[in-house]
TrEMBL record:
Keywords: Coiled coil
CC per GO annotation: efflux pump complex
NCBIfam families assigned: RND_mfp (TIGR01730)
Any one GO molecular function term: efflux transmembrane transporter activity
PANTHER family named in the record: EFFLUX RND TRANSPORTER PERIPLASMIC ADAPTOR SUBUNIT (PTHR30469:SF20), MULTIDRUG RESISTANCE PROTEIN MDTA (PTHR30469)
Coiled coil: 108-159
Domain Multidrug resistance protein MdtA-like alpha-helical hairpin: from-to ranges: 109-174
Similarity annotation: Belongs to the membrane fusion protein (MFP) (TC 8.A.1) family.
Protein name stated in the entry: RND transporter
Length: 381
């Protein structure tokens, strides 16, 4: 059965080393060279035990805020209040900074006076228009005077509308002299100093939303297709020793990093983590991967594997009744600290030859070497 190329290359180098050692040993020992191919060979073997449960993958990651915005005024002017410091918590609706409102208050008073005058003029124009309309209908006034009164009324009406809109805009400008937090969060950076004159749209502070914290890691491309096997995520932070937080999968990016070729995987931390974690903190994510349904996995030493052609790996199965071995193709699942994990047409309790695999042939009779007794120190093995 075939195995991933990266594991194949690793195992290939390991096999070359093992073969060199074995061949060297054979050349130095005439006893080994004299054993006929079909002679009963002593071998070491291990009994297969099913790997129970899931396994975990660990990745480095970084915390980030769900959103970060740069707040700015919709009007310009001199700052007279900057009530924010780096790291300060602000709540939604809280004033963060303020522009001197005096010019805006003066503009409002001016427009209020102008609107009052426009309304008075409209009132007079309305009376004149109604008067000449009545006279014109009675044939008691010339059409030119009627038309003039109507035009004056329409102009006065338009002026009142324009002054009303200008006053509303001025009042909004006055409201906009106060910079209000759009959500509860933390001030990440002050971008201006108090008493500076700022312009419309100039960033004043950077605000981060820490209600939800995200964690981003790079997922190798060969694992992107196995997301359905990831059944839980746990995140630990160096800055929060002794704590580990649950997380849920948010998304996996569609485009890999051009350098690492890893895809950005984003997790959302549980709410309990938000008071302790800050954007930029280094994290370690442990992903629990479900064992494949219906597929038993077994751990064996790497020297128990041998290449049976191409990228195919095999092991020797020892039959206790016939005292012979048979070749069994296997699939290499992954490397671990003890060796490799394999799967295939195997069963718990079977014996797999763990040493001397390159000297065997199908159907060859073998003899299992027993492990020496702890008290048999220095004895022959």
């Amino acid at each position: 059965m075939r195995k991933p190329k990266s594991i194949t290359r690793w195992l290939g180098m390991a096999m070359v080393g093992l073969m060199a050692g074995i061949m060297g040993g054979c050349m130095d020992s005439g006893a080994h060279a004299d054993i006929p191919p079909k002679a009963v060979r002593p071998v070491k073997a291990i009994q297969l035990t099913r790997i129970v449960g899931d396994h975990a993958l660990v990745f480095p990651a970084t915390a980030k805020s769900l959103r970060e915005v740069r707040l700015s005024f919709r009007v310009g002017g001199p700052l007279i209040g900057l009530d924010a410091e780096n790291g300060q918590k602000v709540v939604k609706g809280q004033m963060i900074a303020r522009i001197d409102p005096r010019d805006f208050e003066i503009a409002i008073k001016t427009l209020e006076a102008k609107l009052a005058a426009s309304k008075a003029h409209l009132e007079e124009a309305t009376l004149q228009y109604h008067r000449y309309a009545h006279l014109f209908n009675q044939n008691a006034a010339a059409k030119a005077k009627y038309d003039n009164a109507r035009a004056t009324f329409q102009m006065a009406e338009a002026q009142v509308k324009a002054d009303t809109e200008s006053l509303a805009d001025a009042k909004n400008d006055l409201i906009d002299t106060r910079l209000i937090a759009p959500f509860t969060g933390y001030v990440n950076d002050e971008l201006v100093e108090n008493h500076e004159t700022v312009t419309q749209g100039q960033p004043i502070v950077s605000l981060v939303d820490l209600k939800t914290i995200e964690v981003v890691l790079g997922l190798p491309e060969d694992l992107v297709g196995r997301l359905s096997d990831f059944n839980s995520y746990r995140v630990a932070f160096e800055a929060v020793p002794g704590s580990e937080f649950a997380a849920t999968l948010k998304e996996v990016g569609k485009t890999p990093d051009p350098t690492s070729r890893a895809y950005p995987l984003t997790l959302i931390l549980e709410p309990a983590a938000t008071p302790l974690v800050r954007p930029g903190m280094a994290a370690q994510v442990r992903i629990n991967v479900s064992a494949d349904a219906g597929k038993d996995r077994f751990a064996i030493p790497v020297q128990a594997l041998f290449n049976s052609g191409g990228d195919t790996s095999s092991v020797w199965i020892f039959d206790a009744q016939t005292q012979t071995v048979s070749r069994q193709e296997v699939f290499v699942e992954r490397l671990n600290r003890q060796g490799v994990e394999i799967s295939g047409d195997l069963a718990p309790g079977q014996w797999v030859v763990s040493a001397g695999v390159h000297h065997l042939q199908p159907g060859q009779r073998v003899r299992l070497l027993k492990k020496p007794s702890p008290t048999n120190v220095g004895a022959m093995r």
